[in-house]
Amino acid sequence: MSRREDYESRTEALLQPIAEQNGVSIYDVEYVKEGADYYLRAYIDKPEGVNIIDCENVSRALSDALDKEDFILDAYILEVSSPGLGRTLKKDKHLAASIGEEVEIKLFKAQDKVKEFVGVLERFDESSIIINIEGTSRSFNRSDIALVRLTLDF
Predict the structure, then answer these.
(1) What's residue 154's pLDDT?
(2) Is residue 139 within 8 Å of residue 107, measured between CB atoms?
(3) What is the pTM of this model?
(4) Which of 31, 50, 77, 141 could form a disulfide with 7 if both were Cys (CB 3.0 to 4.6 A apart)?
(5) Cβ–Cβ contacts within 10 Å for residue 129, how many?
């Protein structure tokens, strides 16, 4: 397990009871380096959507728990937020919850001279994601996909 994976896993374990106490669920936890800074991001959600008070309450409690455990060696910035409307679908649980929703798939390399596809998520397995584009099912190898996210419909 990499250091990043360890930090994410341990943070998620600390976050679980905090999320339950605050009536939210954990969408994702990520530890990333952007420029010179490290960020520990916790994304929380609930059916009616999270608000700033939810984020503030979870952030304070998580910050205290992280300070007490003190397992992250680097200086980092803690962010707690909603995953947003155009949320990234990284994990199988995210994909499963989004079956029937319109998604955008961005590929690492173009297929048929196109790198971005939009369609309705039909199904997925460990190696592929299938979307319906204007009545036609199209399969993409997960290893070719750079990003999958819900589309924004305004």
Answers:
(1) 64
(2) no
(3) 0.81
(4) 31
(5) 21
